């Protein structure tokens, strides 16, 4: 049985010995999602279907368009759309949205699943003003080293398809709170953030964001907008990501693999 977010395709598998096998393979799905704020389209993101409501809310909050769960009046998939768009349009009705932030975040073209910044209208729209954040306490290296395995253990869709990123929220003691998967790493992050918006648990102070890939500027910005003080990535950060982490008093570690890691910002004990 296929999980939500995957679809079966017939393939031919070629083995090293030259043999061929015809079989069915499970692939991760990638479809466009249009996010509307009230009556206005804000963005079209390429995502893995599932948790669309959380993804939409997470996008609006991590872009600084909304900043309080009480602003959200309703959120649902649009029904008055064409058949081919059904299930791929989410409308968020909200009060007091930051229209300047919405204008900056609005994409003229779709954002690719590999790069959430693709399609931003100008470089000026990239940087957002994150709320002030207190520096987190020193985080144990052993706690950070254990996160990739804990994250991987909660990736059911990756187990089936092998084609997904993940973002996970953990306590400072390393207890898992939530893991979400998506073909786009920024979407996985927004799904985590949006889920907590839906729970009206905001901001996300006192948590670690664990990433299955690299720590780009946008991922650090999303964490900062949500009040997350610690980011741990399996791969490398960018220079701009490190600069933003330091400006935000955030702890940022990368290359968290096999018990080792690089500390780029903050305190690790």
Average pLDDT, all residues = 89
Work out the radius of gyration: 19 Å
Counted by DSSP, the helix tally is 7
Highest CATH level, the class of the largest domain: Alpha Beta
Which regions have little confidence, pLDDT < 50, spanning 5+ residues? 108-112, 119-126
Assembly of the depicted chains? single chain
Report helical residue fraction.
25-40%
Supply the number of structural domains.
2
Shape: flat
Main sheet makeup: 6 strands, mixed
N- and C-termini, Cα separation: 45 Å
Examine the secondary-structure arrangement and name the CATH architecture of the largest domain: 3-Layer(aba) Sandwich
Find the structural class using helix and strand composition: alpha/beta
Order of helices and strands: EEEEHEEHHHEEHEHEHEE
Q: What fraction of residues sit in β-strands?
A: 25-35%
User: Would you count the extended β strands for me?
Assistant: 12
CATH superfamily of the largest domain: Cytidine Deaminase, domain 2
Q: Strand order, biggest sheet?
A: 8-7-9-10-11-12
Question: Can you walk me through this structure?
Answer:
The protein is of the alpha/beta class. The chain folds into 2 domains: 95 residues, Ubiquitin-like (UB roll); 125 residues, 3-Layer(aba) Sandwich (Cytidine Deaminase, domain 2), CATH 3.40.140. The strands form 3 sheets. The protein has a 6-stranded mixed β-sheet, with helices on both faces. Strands 4-3-6-5 form a 4-stranded mixed β-sheet. Strands 1-2 form a two-stranded antiparallel sheet. β9, α6 and β10 form a beta-alpha-beta unit. α1 crosses α5. The protein is flat. The chain starts with 5 loop residues before the first strand and ends with a strand.
